[in-house]
């Protein structure tokens, strides 16, 4: 019998079964029973659609690579008829590549296959993409995991910096600017550090290419404005903000990298000789806590900006006509799997805060509850949440940054 006819009969049989179940009950049902019936109907339809092997491509921000690879292996073990191809990409890079996709496109950036699921580092990129496409091109987004921005420092550097600036709030953008300005000019000997450390070396990801870099820029902007309300183009267009931004930018030891994950890998590999601190996601500090001690004999410390934001890691369906109904169902099944309790608890092991609210962050067995992690400074108090402007304003803020530092 042809495969298409077998698939048709499977779908028909699943539909008849669901209708029969509902028809047998003429009595009102509880919300719980109705929800169970709805879930049964959805799963029956999915199983029928996924009767044959289907492949889906997922583009994701590289900083969550280890968690997502682990989760995907578990998913494919449970759903062997779904083949998931993971493409690790910089969040801003993938946003720009997708912004150039049309309905006629069959591939995108570097001739890669179009992803049916896209999971950049934050909703910042979703706003930018949908603004460029002038429609909800990335839709049905669900936050997978959360991670706030953090200053991540070697403990000896952090202790010296914090002690010198203890009366001014310790590690902050304001005090970084002071340390980098005349007459200190970034010399550790001028603000309590070992003269052998030389100049203060700051690392951050490129805001043009990385979600972590864009988060750094947003936190820097709000530190300059000293408020949570959304920034406007007018108040950042003058020379005062440009000079403020340049002082921070000049402290980087090498050109900003395109990925937060690669930046943290470099910090772990090269040690304090290259970076005294980096400004990226909290999760990367938790994930690399033991690596720092094993390789360099120095623990890490974590501090949060006064005005902060979360990397939400949304996973969105890409609205493109080339995707089949089977691929769409497989994509939704994968998306739901990543939000299951098992996989949300797994996310904690990789340093991420679960996006599902009934999975606690600081629970028994969670790395967030480990005394060594708490001693790093990891906390529920991550600063005041800043308000982000719309997609078009975000693009203009990036232009202002580029003009200021380039």
The CATH homologous superfamily of the largest domain is termed Periplasmic binding protein-like II
Helix/strand class: alpha/beta
Cα-atom radius of gyration: 24 Å
Which percent range describes the beta-strand content?
15-25%
What is the CA-CA span between the terminal residues?
65 Å
Helix content: 40-55%
Average pLDDT score: 88
Tell me the CATH architecture of the largest domain: 3-Layer(aba) Sandwich
GO molecular function: molecular carrier activity
Organism: Candidatus Thermofonsia Clade 1 bacterium
Keywords: Periplasm, Signal, Transport
InterPro entries: Thiosulph/SO4-bd
Summarize the structure in words:
The protein is α/β, with parallel strands linked by helices and 406 residues long. The protein folds into two domains: 187 residues, D-Maltodextrin-Binding Protein, domain 2 (3-Layer(aba) Sandwich); 196 residues, D-Maltodextrin-Binding Protein, domain 2 (3-Layer(aba) Sandwich), CATH 3.40.190. The chain has 16 helices and 15 strands. Strands 7, 8, 9, 10, 12 and 14 form a six-stranded mixed β-sheet that branches. Strands 2-1-5-13-6 form a five-stranded mixed β-sheet, sandwiched between helices. Helix 4 packs parallel to helix 5 and helix 5 crosses helix 16. The chain is globular and about 70 Å long. The termini are far apart. GO terms for molecular function: molecular carrier activity. One of its GO terms (cellular component) is periplasmic space. This is ABC transporter substrate-binding protein. Its main location: periplasm. Pfam families: SBP_bac_11.
